[in-house]
């Protein structure tokens, strides 16, 4: 005879398992539907955007409107980035690192042209500790002289040594396209005279101007709303509400032009056009980038995209199209690297590829593929926590709302062949921004490949 | 390891401080370095990693002045001379400029050692 206790135990277990299964199911379903976009809120004067997939880890980032675009003197954004997680009034840099290592967290600071991002990745239950840390970095960093000389300068020199010709070409394209603001170089090259501008005092003054509640957004991926509202309020109290010093935030204007830099080493060329900005995300540009593509998704095949076919005609060249979206402007670029002769050929073929879009020789099937590719780019970027985080933050600090995935996908689907043709035509009729770095004897001028600058 | 000192205790008590200050001043003047134009912190031995790092952290002007004082004192010592009395180091000029940096470096090292010897206790 089976004892009663055994029976009840088994049923209990089964019941428990069922509950578990239900819980897991709910988690997955929620992640797929509602929580794909960041939800903006305002906690105690701080702009916060969060989404929660109920995972075991959290990514918490403070996105500050302090990228290279806003720096009053060259190199300050870089200096501020390096001063993140250094000595504060309350604890030393060493203690910050050791404590977060003990908690299994990762600290990271990086900047884009518009935003400076201080990010912490950690286990879900450590939210209070890292919220406090990020607020402390904003309001209590000491900007000491000895840290600047002993640690920061050498790190900047090491990072400068890693700047490649492709980065220089992209910087040069931004520079001729936007002159100041967005045209500032993303990382000062070793030839840039920054030593007279960059010191601990100028960095501290820049920090005072940018680290305030009006200028930051806190982005959380994988943290509960209740936890955020509980911890952000007390810890971010010390961050000032606004600053007396004004940031240089003139609206971006597109100029266009050509820059050629003779340089030994690898060759690089960037062909850029006005692209789509963050707020008014022009769906045609996204589809055009998908159509131009460049990187094949399939092994051993150039794929359908126009640029990968162009690269196939010029062996050795690597071509890809990207749209760099900023708050009030965008830059659609075609970046080419490889041997100089191959770059020349690939650049000619790339311009021919855009002309073929204007001629309307793009098949319906290719358009469908391009829309699918654009959709994939959008969705995977918003899903990958790093990119999604920065985009959501950049939108918030510039006064917009985080990307609404569902609506943008709908806009992509409504792009027609005619719209695409018009967009490509506008590109070729306007002024391009062309940058060539490397062996200038071989690399072509913009006019040689049929572009107006 | 710094020598044991009653100074922090004395500084805390104003009446004791006012009583001992003249005595301390007399001792410093009797030590003779002020007659060579030096400051007390110029006498700290340089042959030490911590002191070398602290010297690097000095502002450039302080570093220049320190070297000037030491060279002048060396020259006077060779010549068996003292400075004219109006150039002797005044009591109010004889401030610790290097000692705070050394203390800061020692605190940093102590913290590093403590963190290195840390044992983690899990609370579950």
TrEMBL record, chain A:
InterPro entries, alphabetized: Metalloenz_LuxS/M16, MPP/UQCRC_Complex, Pept_M16_N, Peptidase_M16_C
Major site of localization recorded for this protein: mitochondrion
Membrane topology: Peripheral membrane protein
Record localization: Mitochondrion inner membrane
CC per GO annotation: mitochondrial inner membrane
Residue ranges annotated for the Peptidase M16 C-terminal domain, each copy included: 198-372
Residues in Peptidase M16 N-terminal domain copies: 47-187
Keywords, comma-separated and alphabetical: Electron transport, Membrane, Mitochondrion, Mitochondrion inner membrane, Respiratory chain, Transit peptide, Transport
A Pfam family: Peptidase_M16_C
Gene Ontology molecular function terms on file: metal ion binding
Family: Belongs to the peptidase M16 family. UQCRC2/QCR2 subfamily.
Protein name: Cytochrome b-c1 complex subunit 2, mitochondrial
Source organism per UniProt: Diplogelasinospora grovesii
Organism classification: Eukaryota, Fungi, Dikarya, Ascomycota, Pezizomycotina
UniProtKB/TrEMBL annotation, chain B:
PANTHER family with a match to the protein in the record: CYTOCHROME B-C1 COMPLEX SUBUNIT 7 (PTHR12022:SF0), UBIQUINOL-CYTOCHROME C REDUCTASE COMPLEX 14 KD PROTEIN (PTHR12022)
One Pfam family it belongs to: UCR_14kD
Protein name in the entry: Cytochrome b-c1 complex subunit 7
SUPFAM superfamilies from the UniProt entry: 14 kDa protein of cytochrome bc1 complex (Ubiquinol-cytochrome c reductase)
Function description: Component of the ubiquinol-cytochrome c oxidoreductase, a multisubunit transmembrane complex that is part of the mitochondrial electron transport chain which drives oxidative phosphorylation.
Species this chain originates from: Diplogelasinospora grovesii
Compartments it resides in: Mitochondrion inner membrane
Any Gene Ontology biological process: mitochondrial electron transport, ubiquinol to cytochrome c
GO CC term (a single one): respiratory chain complex III
Membrane topology, record value: Peripheral membrane protein
């Amino acid at each position: 005879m089976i004892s009663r206790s055994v029976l009840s135990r088994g049923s209990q277990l089964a019941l428990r398992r069922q509950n578990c299964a239900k819980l897991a199911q709910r988690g997955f379903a929620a992640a797929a539907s509602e929580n794909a976009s960041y939800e903006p809120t305002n906690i105690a004067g701080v702009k916060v955007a969060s989404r929660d997939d109920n995972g075991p880890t959290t990514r918490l980032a403070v996105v500050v409107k302090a990228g290279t675009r806003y720096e009053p003197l060259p190199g300050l954004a870089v200096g501020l980035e390096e001063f993140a997680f250094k000595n504060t009034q309350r604890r030393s840099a060493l203690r910050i690192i050791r404590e977060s290592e003990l908690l299994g967290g990762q600290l990271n600071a990086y900047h884009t042209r518009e935003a400076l991002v201080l990010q912490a990745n950690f286990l879900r239950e450590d939210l209070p500790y890292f919220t406090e840390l990020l607020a402390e970095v904003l309001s209590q960093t000491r900007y000491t002289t000895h840290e600047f000389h002993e640690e920061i300068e050498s790190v900047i020199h090491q990072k400068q040594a890693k700047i490649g010709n492709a980065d220089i070409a992209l910087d040069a394209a931004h520079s001729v396209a936007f002159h100041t603001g967005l045209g500032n170089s993303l990382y000062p090259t070793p030839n840039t005279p920054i030593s007279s501008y960059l010191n601990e005092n100028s960095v501290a003054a820049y920090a005072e101007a940018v680290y305030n509640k009006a200028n930051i957004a806190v982005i959380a991926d994988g943290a509960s709303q209740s936890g955020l509202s509980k911890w952000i309020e007390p810890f971010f109290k010390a961050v000032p509400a606004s600053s007396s010093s004004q940031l240089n935030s003139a609206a971006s204007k597109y100029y266009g032009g050509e820059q050629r830099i003779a340089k030994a080493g690898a060759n690089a060329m960037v062909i850029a056009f006005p692209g789509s900005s963050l707020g008014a995300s022009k769906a045609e540009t996204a589809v055009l980038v998908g159509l131009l593509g460049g990187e094949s998704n399939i092994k051993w095949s150039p794929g359908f995209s126009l640029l990968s076919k162009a690269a196939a005609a010029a062996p050795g060249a690597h071509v890809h199209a990207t749209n760099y979206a900023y708050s009030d402007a965008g830059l659609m670029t075609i970046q080419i690297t490889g041997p100089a002769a191959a770059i020349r050929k690939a650049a000619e073929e790339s311009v021919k590829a855009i002309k073929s879009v204007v001629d309307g020789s793009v098949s319906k099937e290719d358009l469908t593929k391009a829309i699918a590719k654009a959709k994939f780019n959008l969705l995977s970027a918003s899903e990958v926590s790093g990119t999604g985080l920065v985009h959501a933050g950049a939108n918030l600090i510039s006064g917009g709302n985080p990307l609404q995935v569902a609506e943008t996908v709908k806009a992509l689907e409504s792009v027609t062949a005619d719209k695409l043709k018009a967009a490509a035509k506008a590109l070729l009729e306007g002024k391009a921004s062309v940058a060539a770095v490397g062996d200038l004897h071989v690399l072509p001028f913009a006019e040689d490949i049929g572009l107006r600058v | 390891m710094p020598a044991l000192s009653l100074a922090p205790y004395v500084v805390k008590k104003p009446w004791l401080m006012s009583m001992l200050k003249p005595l301390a001043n007399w001792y410093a003047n009797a030590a003779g370095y002020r007659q060579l134009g030096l400051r007390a912190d110029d006498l700290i031995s340089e042959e030490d990693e911590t002191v070398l790092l602290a010297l690097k952290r000095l502002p450039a002007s302080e570093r220049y002045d320190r070297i000037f004082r030491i060279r002048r004192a060396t020259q006077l010592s060779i010549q068996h001379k003292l400075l004219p009395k109006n150039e002797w180091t005044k009591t109010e000029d004889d401030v610790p400029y290097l000692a705070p940096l050394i203390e800061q470096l020692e605190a940093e090292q102590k913290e590093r050692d403590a963190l290195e010897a840390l044992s983690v206790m899990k609370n579950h």
